[in-house]
Amino acid sequence: MRELSDALLAWFDQCARKLPWREQASDTRRDPYAVIVSEFMLQQTQVSTVIPYYSRFMERFPDLLTLASAEEPEVLKYWEGLGYYRRARQLLKLAKTLVSDFSGALPQDRKTLLKLPGIGEYTAGALLSFVFDLPEPAVDGNVLRVVARLDAEAYTMGDVKSQAAARERVSGLMPPERPGDFSEALIELGATICLSSSPLCHDCPMSHVCRAYQQGVVAEYPLRQKREKSPVSQMSYVLVHDGTHVFCRRRSEALLHGLYEFI
DNA sequence: GTCCGGGACC
DNA sequence: GGTCCCGGAC
Which among A3, A23, A39, A177 is annotated as catalytic? Predict the structure, then answer.
């Protein structure tokens, strides 16, 4: 376990992408507000898309108080193009709630965070680990994929039980001295190395402890929801009439081919 | 053009 | 289970 987190953290120290919401003197904690804004934007969109929006948003709403006193239409204007506009509204609600009910400070426990607008299990974990350096798991799609492959465990994307199991697993992996970086490193690994298609296992710092890799079955994890796609059968007919009756004949290659139906 | 991934919430 | 939206893969 020690070996795993050491390897991942060493990789993260060397390879982490430079992102606007990570720009921080290395000895200061991350700005809670910056983490909130970036996590809300990242909930629905990829990093490269978020970057310009994040920068413009932070210029106009540089801190929690500024955002909390803004009107919804203007916030939505800065969100335009990102989609999932409910998130922008939730973010504004969250800012107002934090200011009015929490003296502008982010709660440091999961249970309280989960009651706040727009915050679910993943975002709660992300805030607790990134901002407060607490050993709280933040399991998004990236992390679920990483853990599923690491253990060759049959986790299913988007499945709440799998997410809960993955949170347990990640909790057990957390190194006590750098939980926040470890949490972020798992996400970074999923986003840049442990890709859902064509993962870059040869560059992966965990391949030596990855069960799926050792078994050569990386592509099989995680499982995907089997969507009950109702069998769509196309039918075409030929209309036949003999002057008195109209018949309908199914085309020969179709289901029940050649069958005559009386209309 | 179609399919799919991605969190929270209803 | 459905909805919100977009971008990327194919």
Answer: A39
